[in-house]
Amino acid sequence: MRATTADRTRVPDIPAAALLCAAWLVPGAGHLWLRRTQKGVVFLVVLPLMFAVGLALQGRIFPFQLSQPLVALAALADLGIGAIYLLAWVMGWGAGTAVAPTYEYGNTFLIVAGLLNLLVVLDAYDIAVGRK
Amino acid sequence: MVSHVAVLALFALLVSVVFAVLQRDEPAQQLRLGALLFAGFVGTGVVLGWLMLVFPIGS
């Protein structure tokens, strides 16, 4: 059965902190929880795929090194992808191969995937509080 | 060997899909914005590539 416009505009009453955590941990989870199924599924597929491509292109998951501000910022952006970042860290993925021709491309995919997920989290929050 | 243009196109595709789905609610509008963004990304990449050929860094 197709959801009506009224169904789609009705937002479930969800604690903002729980929504933000879920949306950050699993890309698209916030939208799925808010019954924005189509958007949620797209984010759930595309963002992890982008992160995986970054790893396949031998990109590096940057460590938090406060002595190197740019590396720390890149790490913060990588962390934006949520649980996948934690999984990659635990599994030892994303060591990066600096001499590989695709190294910088890989880094770009990893960083942008994380930043896009942060945008998705903010979008889910806006929907939850009725701004969208 | 990985094609740089293919990587550019894949990056443009994935980012365009996310932006289009974020910014529009109806599938037809999402498709339209996504196609526009994709063309913009790829077109800009090609133009910048040619500019770098004409004005190489360090010349």
Task: Summarize the model shown.
The complex is a heterodimer of chains A (132) and B (59). With 132 residues, chain A is mostly helical.
Task: Give your account of this protein's structure.
The complex is a heterodimer of chains A (132) and B (59). Chain A starts with a helix and ends with a helix. In chain A, 65% of the residues lie in helices and 0% in strands. The longest helix of chain A is centred in the last third of the chain and has 26 residues, at 103-128. Chain A is built from 7 helices and no strands. Chain B has 59 residues and is an all-alpha fold. Helix content of chain B is 81%, strand content 0%. The two termini of chain B are 28 Å apart. The A-B interface holds A 38-39, 42-43, 46-47, 49-50, 53, 57, 101-102, 105, 108-109, 112, 116, 119-120, 123 and B 2, 4, 7, 10-11, 14-15, 17-18, 21-22, 27.
Features:
heterodimer; A: 132 residues; mainly alpha; 65% helix; elongated; B: 59 residues; 81% helix; 0% strand
Rough outline of chain A: elongated
- What Rg of chain B do the Cα atoms give? 14 Å
Strand content of chain A: under 5%
Largest interface: A-B, 20 and 12 residues
- How many angstroms separate the termini of chain A? 24 Å
SS field, number of helical segments of chain A:
7
DSSP helix fraction of chain B:
over 70%
**Helical content band of chain A:** 55-70%
Q: How much beta of chain B, percentage-wise?
A: under 5%
**What's the mean pLDDT score of chain B?**
93
